[in-house]
Amino acid sequence: MKYVLITGGVVSGLGKGVTASSIGVGLQACGLRVTSIKIDPYLNTDAGTMSPFEHGEVFVLDDGGEVDLDLGNYERFLDVTLTKDNNVTTGKIYQSVLDKERKGDYLGKTVQVVPHITDAIKDRIEAVALIPVDGKEGPADVCVIELGGTVGDIESMPFIEALRQLSFSVGKDNFCLIHVSLIPVLGVVGEQKTKPTQHSVRELRALGLTPHLLACRSAQPLLDNTKMKLSQFCHVEAANILNIHDVPNIWHIPLLLRNQNAHRSILKQLNLLSIATPPDLEAWSRRAETFDNLTDSVRIAMVGKYVGLTDSYLSVVKALLHACIACSLKPSIDWIAASDLEDDPAQSAPEAYAAAWKSLRNAECVLVPGGFGDRGVSGMILAAKYARENNVPYLGICLGMQISVIEYARSVLGLEKANSNEFDDETPDPVVIFMPEGSRTHMGSTMRLGSRRTLFQTPDCVTSKLYCNPYYVDERHRHRYEVNPDVIGVLEEAGLKFVGKDETGKRMEVLELPSHPFYVGVQFHPEFKSRPGKPSALFLGLILAARGKLEAYLTRHQNGS
Question: In what residue span(s) does the Glutamine amidotransferase domain sit (predicted)?
Fold first, then answer.
């Protein structure tokens, strides 16, 4: 196994995840099979219990793993299906070591960070690197490892030491270290400053790791004298100093790296030049160029709880982007805090209230994504009601589907107190109830998680036509509450159709309103399986409906064209 390690220096949030994904794309384009590991040095076992404000969205995998959003980048860029083991955290490592200690596996030895924690990290990395993730037999050729955080962080020290030992044990032909760093420009001087990167590399070398390549983040392309300075003081060949400057969209990054022969430097370090082919990135070039040349945009109202941090809905944003590009459109997302649509802000924050409603009324389609807790629920219900009554295309995901059921029960069935048990335990009309699969006391990994099958009740529904499958679809879930099976009959009599159910027929997965141009709610999360060039069917349906092109698209596809 060959390893490519990506570390970060100077500051966090430099785009190590996109860099790691782009390097993987470059190696894939050379005919190599690639897998990825993300190391998160926090003590949480996984990302499942973290607030989206704290750490961005929680990405869900096929096997139910709740992981860091960088694994979403890897899946989208590399078109692979990762496992929860591909996300290594301090919590998982310490838990496994402590479990072994309690079982007496260390035969009375004093259990220490070195060697026991570092050995556990090495063993975990080597085992996970062998798991095939691209649907083929046998392990990949190269494993790209991203070490979260910044070099010098106390919490990542055991990982740095373990990776130093790993680099020594696998040999120099099997290990390539790429250090991502920042080259700032001070406003007054206007000069590209290399000193922060010099210090960062010095810190890394003091810990026993020497970078083979530097990936320098900057606003503008690096000047030649900056590169020479970095080469001289960081002990890295000038040809191995890569510049990742700001670009119009992230699909340019693999092309940017190819143009600087990054793949060649990595292949040379890993002694793979003889088996690799010249990189074929034709599809990426077309995609990046297409996006840059788009002029027509579609206005999408995103009504959610965590709109203050767009990373909270990263996969939803990417899925919208993939769908829009398939329709030759640019996404123009209006972020609407659901609480701003409610009645209270009309008095307390009239400007925010007016702006939120103006954005909603100007939108060509409405999307209500997933979330937990009762904040902003009333605003989401108002958004669903607006979309339903005004024939505006609507897609509700997870909580967004439950919102549309509550709204329909209140507005159409006249059940004014209809609610979800999540928001009101005492509601006389619980149209959404707690799901028996989960646990009320433990938060982590207790939900209905991962890929589950949804059976379409009729091949004539919009959803099955969009998926081009009259029978079923497999999508990823992350939820505790479900639509109450006892109210399905009355809701269907009133016009709301549940066209997708699970294999037991008791869990509602997809709802549609046949009298509406596009009013769809899904209990699963279709955004997690959207890929560049292969958009999620439901997001594509939403964008097509926003432009009045859905019926023509479905007719064309039914005729096999």
Answer: 309-543
Same domain, 157 and 86: yes
Query: Are residue 114 and residue 263 in the same domain, yes or no?
Result: yes
**Helix ranges (DSSP H) in 207-280:** 224-234, 253-259, 262-269
Contact 238, 44 (CB under 8 A): no
Asked if residue 346 and residue 232 are part of one domain, the reply reads: no
Q: How confident is the model at residue 561 (pLDDT cuts 50, 70, 90)?
A: very low
- Answer yes or no: do 53 and 172 share one domain: yes
Q: Per the residue annotation, which of 161, 475, 509, 527 is the catalytic one?
A: 527
Domain tally for the chain?
Answer: 2
Residues 7 and 148 reside in one and the same domain: yes
Active site residue 525: yes
Q: Mind listing the pLDDT tens digit for each residue in 51-105?
A: 877 778 899 999 999 999 999 999 999 999 999 999 999 999 999 999 999 999 9
Domain with 138 in it? 2-289
**Is 83 found in the same domain as 53?**
yes
Give the separation between CA 479 and CA 522, rounded to whole angstroms: 12
234 is catalytic: no
Average pLDDT taken over every residue of the chain = 92
DSSP letter for each residue of 477-510: EEESEEE-GGGHHHHHHTT-EEEEE-TTS-SEEE
Active-site annotation holder among 30, 216, 398, 461: 398
Instruction: Confirm whether pTM is higher than 0.85.
Output: yes
